[in-house]
Amino acid sequence: SATPEGRGPAPGRAGGARRLRAILGAAGLGAAGRLRVGHLLPLVWVFHYREGLSWDGGPREFNWHPVLVITGFVFIQGIAIIVYRLPWTWKCSKLLMKFIHAGLNTIAMILAIVSMVAVFEYHNARNIPNMYSLHSWIGLTAVIFYSLQLFLGFAVFLLPFAPVPLRAALMPIHVYSGLTVFATVIATALMGITEKLIFSLKNPAYSASPPEATFVNCLGLLLVIFGALILWMASRSHWKRPPEENRRLLAASQKKGA
Ligand code: HEM
Ligand code: HEM
Description:
The chain is an all-alpha fold. The protein has helices spanning about 15-40, 40-50, 60, 65-80, 95-125, 135-160, 165-200, 210-235, 245-255. Helix 4 packs parallel to helix 8.
């Protein structure tokens, strides 16, 4: 049941809507709070256990890679995906929400690109080969598809040129490819974390479970939990933003005190 603005069923049952929204809102806030803490962990990693950050071709430049990619490509992209599904935003106009969704995705893209520049510059400065690992193959593929998704998103859903049937036809593909790239990015991050721990924990080794290993394993676990939460919210029909005509009816009936 594609609508011009998206897909999915009408919300129905306006009676319990307010309570449902309160519950969903509280759950959303709780999740957001937990996630804000989660995205600080890469900073703890690079400052407490690693060399810190700078832009000098050394390991401290490499460290921008995990910090920016987890903050931008995982965390901000995740929030961008579920902004339409936060019940307290349902009273905002669809156009505003599109700007927020597109804007957050653009920020994520910029941070991902800067993080790529950091790791390539680090490799070049040290004469380490580029693009040899599975991590780098999957990661770069995800970045390329993400930029395609961003470009098509702007062209089809934000600019006023695409006709409504085209928008409706492309929306399920937009959602599918968006969620697939997001899941791929989480998998890429897990591979990167594992590589980095194996490369850099020498004495004691990764296999001796030093505190850094346990800490960063937990960071990886949190990335999986974050991803699972985002995919959950993005796939439940009751979190779906009500289609525009239903929102108008609901607002009118509430004004009348019904
Ligand atoms: C989640 C999104 C990520 C993407 C898209 C991504 C992408 C990439 C790419 C394209 C390279 C190749 C750079 C080159 O060959 O010069 C690379 C290298 C690397 N990344 Fe990531 N990365 C991600 C996350 C992470 C994370 C969270 C870590 C954890 C520290 C990490 C650790 C590494 C390491 C150690 C290398 C160098 C070894 C190699 O080339 O595989 N990456 N990454
Ligand atoms: C790489 C960037 C992007 C990604 C990863 C992405 C991903 C997604 C995902 C996963 C959804 C489903 C969300 C849901 O069902 O609630 C979605 C919905 C949507 N996206 Fe994007 N998107 C991107 C860029 C854009 C851009 C630039 C626009 C332009 C405004 C856009 C417009 C929309 C619209 C209109 C919806 C439907 C919202 C609804 O069903 O209420 N997207 N996007």
